Amino acid sequence: MDDSGSEDVGVVAGGSEDDRSVFETIDQDNYCAVTNHCSERISISLILINLAAIMERADENVLPSVYKEVSETFNASPSDLGYLTFIRNFVQGLCSPLAGILVLSYDRPKVLAGTFCWALSTAAVGICLELKQVTFWRAVNGFGLAIVILPLQSFIVDSFMDGVRGVGFGLLSLIGSLGGIRGGVLATVMVGQQYFGVEGWRCAFILMATLSAIIGILVYMCVVDPRKTINNIQKSPYRYQRRDNLIDQTLPNSSSIWFESWTALKAVMKVHTFQIIILQGIVGSLPWTAMVFFTMWFELIGSSHNGTAVLLSLFVVGYALGCLLGGLIADRLTKIYPHSSRIMCAQFSASMGIPFSLLLLQLIPQFVDSLLIFGVTLFLMGLTISWNGIAVNAPIFAEVVPIKHQTMIYAFDRAFEGSFSSFAAPLVGILSEKMFGYDDTAGASLLKALALSKGLLTMMTVPFGVCCLNKAKENLMAFYKAQYNIDQALQKDTSFRRWVGYGIMLFLVVFSMHI
């Protein structure tokens, strides 16, 4: 950095508000110049990143889409199937900090080439002959997903500014959901067929692995890490001062990334907002993990493979549109209500999970004739319950975490959420078998569907209720803060107080006339 740059930094760090605004204007101009210069390469990178997100989401949906067939092939119970999801999510959570180290040590395109790892494990599942082998390769699959998902999220953080980051995460989730549709529909449709004497569900795994490997090659060869452009921009220390001050600057510099990140994590854990995000993320992930049984449940009701694929596609389309819609609404409301808008959006989204779960799993008759009602319910459910992570948690998380340590703290967040939420899938199976009477030997599929729906309902409504209460507490705190600001304005501005009094009097007069 030259002398003039150092002088500007000194003025901003200790100068007036005017100095800061002037510097941030200059800083923004530099940012725009560098961004425009590299826009074409970044656009290509974003396209490939979204393709990787598509394959990641598709890979996650392949196994749940063929639960029934895997159960018949390996004679597996619902709890066994839930354990397959548990082991993948649990390993994925534990390996997330390792992914953070890789992202900090290497260019993210090289890390994203880890799609080869999950491609290998996905293909291996397709050729397994025993359930134990499937379990092992699902654990390897969790490792592969761990080292890919984190770079995807951090790539979005560096590619979008704070004010539009909700839209950025929403677009990533929207496009990734298209992969979820493709993976789920492809596997469900291929299930009833045989290709060259091989069962359709096995071919679906092999095909998905091949596509993932191709995307991995393209990402490694063509993606440009946005940090290479961001490092060329002279950022204003004032802009990030509040976040970076969370870390004790007096600590000696350490060459250990683990030590620095652990210090940052302990400091950020003291931030109340971060604590709420972690708690909400752990509890809020449980229903989504439990939903892996939707495919098996619909097939037990009597839905065909194609019909089940259509139903789940409607849910994923609603989810994808809901992510984008939630991001747009939260970003717009943040400009008007900066302290409470995202919290209100999260509370609305979490609260909608309870009535839709009851309607879907209990109130609608569990017969084939109700599939149209199921489809409409699934679409509206996906549209309204998908706001929390994309529109609320991810943008707030990016705003309260120091820039330098975002990647590692994201990794620890994934470790917390992934490890705890992984218990939801086996719990659905255990509840269905032990409490609600699911019996593999029973011939009646409707009885199995009823027991499975009760297990699903328990693992969805309870976490949604806890999330809603958590968000209600957070929203109440924001309301108190806003009310305090209004009270201060009333004390300082007599004219404002007078007009508020006139408004209250007018309301009372109109109300009395109405009575």
- Mean pLDDT comes to 71
Topology as H/E string? HHHHHHHHHEEHHHHHHHHHHHHHH
Q: Uncertain spans, ≥5 residues at pLDDT below 50?
A: 1-41, 230-255, 476-494, 504-515
According to CATH, the fold-level topology is Growth Hormone, Chain: A
CATH class: Mainly Alpha
Count of β-strands = 2
Quote the distance from N terminus to C terminus: 72 Å
Radius of gyration: 25 Å
* Number of H- or I-type helical stretches: 23
**Roughly how much helix do the residues carry, as a percent range?**
over 70%
Strand order of the largest sheet: 1-2
Task: Supply the number of structural domains.
Answer: 1
Structural features, described:
81% of the residues lie in helices and 1% in strands. With 515 residues, it is mostly helical. The chain has a single domain (12-229, 267-514), classed as Growth Hormone, Chain: A, CATH 1.20.1250. Strand 1 (194-195) and strand 2 form a beta hairpin. Helix 5 runs antiparallel to helix 21. The longest helix has 48 residues, at 445-492. The radius of gyration is 25 Å and the shape is globular. Mean pLDDT is 71; it is low at 1-41, 230-255, 476-494 and 504-515.
